[in-house]
Write a structure and sequence with these properties.
about 170 residues, mainly alpha, two-stranded parallel sheet, 5 helices, elongated
Amino acid sequence: GLMLALGAVLFPLAFNLVRKHRSKTRKPVVVLDMEAVAERSLPGRAAAQYLRTVQTILHRHLDEVRATYLGREQTPEGMRVLSQAQSTYQQQLALYQKKLDNEIGDIVTAAVRAWLARNRHVAAVVPADETLGYNKNADITRQVIAEVDWYKPSFPPLPRARTNKAGF
């Protein structure tokens, strides 16, 4: 009987000690709004402006091809060249977008790692849009944007002007 009574008293105490220890050693998970980083950070805004410039250059090339084949759009050659020019435009724009996404992704990854190195009490950083919800205190977006702003992105060279008649 004494062992049962002692167990009944000590078990809740031990359970509370374990629970308190776990709550003190449990590392929090924080969230990062990737869209906000892309829209508000200096490298993200620079990438968006760079992509607009690329799109303008590529579109100008497409317009030159259209002007070259003005009045001949429905000929077999005109249809082929215009279709190829449109396809090339879309492929090149997608390629530049992918390169910029990779560059900004690398910058954000480096910034998050640097932030985590200073905040060792945090277990993980997850994208905000991959959560079912989170407390605003778990959002580190502003802190990461401040970190990202220290990085200078490296963009590929802009598309060059075309010299051939077809434009592509």
